[in-house]
């Protein structure tokens, strides 16, 4: 395998969502693990791993956060905004 590049790391981290942050963090770690500590791509990867860790941790705390107000513009169009006991009608 070729040496990892900044672009390789960006390709993994760019589309990150909180749901997959820790899986992507593990992939970045595997990608850079053989690089020397002072290698610029390794340092960049470690910075992105920290970012992914914060992203994943923040989403794991979402259940403790305040709910979005139902008065927020566009709220009525978000299917996940409805409670399970009163779902929005299916789109046609």
Could you explain the architecture of this structure?
- The protein has 92 residues and is mainly alpha-helical.
- The chain starts with 5 loop residues before the first helix and ends in a 32-residue tail after the last helix.
- It has a domain at 6-62.
- The protein contains three helices and no strands.
- It has helices at 6-13, 21-32, 40-60.
- It is 45% helix and 0% strand.
- It is elongated and about 55 Å long.
Short description:
The protein has 92 residues and is an all-alpha fold.
Question: Which descriptors would you attach to this protein?
Answer:
mainly alpha; single chain; 45% helix; 92 residues
Helices, by number, come to: 3
Coarse shape: elongated
- How many strands appear in the DSSP assignment? 0
SS class:
mainly alpha
Mean pLDDT, all residues: 80
Percent strand: under 5%
* Rg from alpha-carbon coordinates: 19 Å
The SSE string, one letter per element, is HHH
Biggest sheet features: none
N→C terminal distance? 48 Å
Helix content: 40-55%
Which spans of ≥5 residues are poorly predicted at pLDDT below 50? none
């Amino acid at each position: 395998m070729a040496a990892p590049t900044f672009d390789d790391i960006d390709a993994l981290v760019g589309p990150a969502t909180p749901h997959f942050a820790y899986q992507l963090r593990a992939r970045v770690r595997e990608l850079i693990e053989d690089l020397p500590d002072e290698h610029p791509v390794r340092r960049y990867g470690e910075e992105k791993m920290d970012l992914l860790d914060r992203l994943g941790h923040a989403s794991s705390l979402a259940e403790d956060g305040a709910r979005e107000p139902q008065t927020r513009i566009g709220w009525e169009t978000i299917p996940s905004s409805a409670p399970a006991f009163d779902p929005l009608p299916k789109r046609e």
